[in-house]
Amino acid sequence: MEFLIGVAVTCLVIFGISIFLKTNKFNKLTLLPFVNWCSKYQAAEDHDRIGMARALVLQTFHLAVDLGVLTVEEKQELGKESMKEDPTILVNAWLESALQIVEQELSVIELGNSEARMVGVLMLVTLKGVNPQRDLQNFLQRFNH
User: Fold this and answer.
1) Which pLDDT belongs to residue 7?
2) Which of 35, 40, 94, 102 is most buried per CB count within 10 Å?
């Protein structure tokens, strides 16, 4: 009996560590330049694409709080709601709608050099406001863009 409990605990610990390492890997990918992240995202298998999308969404929300785009309460609410959905649908929607506006405001070089999570914040800025282009311009002016 004690042996079975030991085996069960060991399995749970190994499972927990593997989940942590995989999550950490996906979070680190959001630090890649956006163009590189997109290439990996497009080439990824479905289960990895889901992990990459979830990490981009959550890391975007974390950084958005740090940059004053979201309040902590908004982040918690959005984070909770986003966990109910397939993150690839959310990220694909961002890429299809908000990315065009970001591309109009940033040069190809700036976009290529920006971390994926920062581009996520820029897309979030365009999605959050009433006038996406103006809101993004105002946000970028805070950083002397």
Assistant:
1) 52
2) 102
Q: Compute the distance between CA of residue 34 and CA of residue 59 in angstroms, rounded to an integer.
A: 13
On whether the CB atoms of residues 34 and 115 are closer than 8 A, the answer is: yes
d(C-alpha 60, C-alpha 119), whole Å: 8
Mean pLDDT of 111-138: 93
The radius of gyration of the chain's CA atoms, rounded to the nearest angstrom, is 18
Query: How far apart (Å, rounded) are the C-alpha atoms in residues 44 and 25?
Result: 13
* Summary mean pLDDT of the chain: 87
The CA distance from 68 to 84, in Å, is 25
Q: What is the DSSP string of 22-72?
A: HHHHHHHHTTSBHHHHHHHHHHS-HHHHHHHHHHHHHHHHHHHHHTTSS-H
- What distance in Å separates the CA atoms of residue 123 and residue 132, rounded to the nearest whole number? 9
Instruction: Give every CB contact of residue 94 below 8 A, 6+ residues apart in sequence.
Output: 120, 123, 124, 127
Where are the chain's structural domains?
A: 2-141
35: which 2 tokens?
A: 């163009």
> Structure pTM?
0.81
The residue assigned the tokens 């069960």 is 8
Q: What is the pLDDT of residue 12?
A: 52
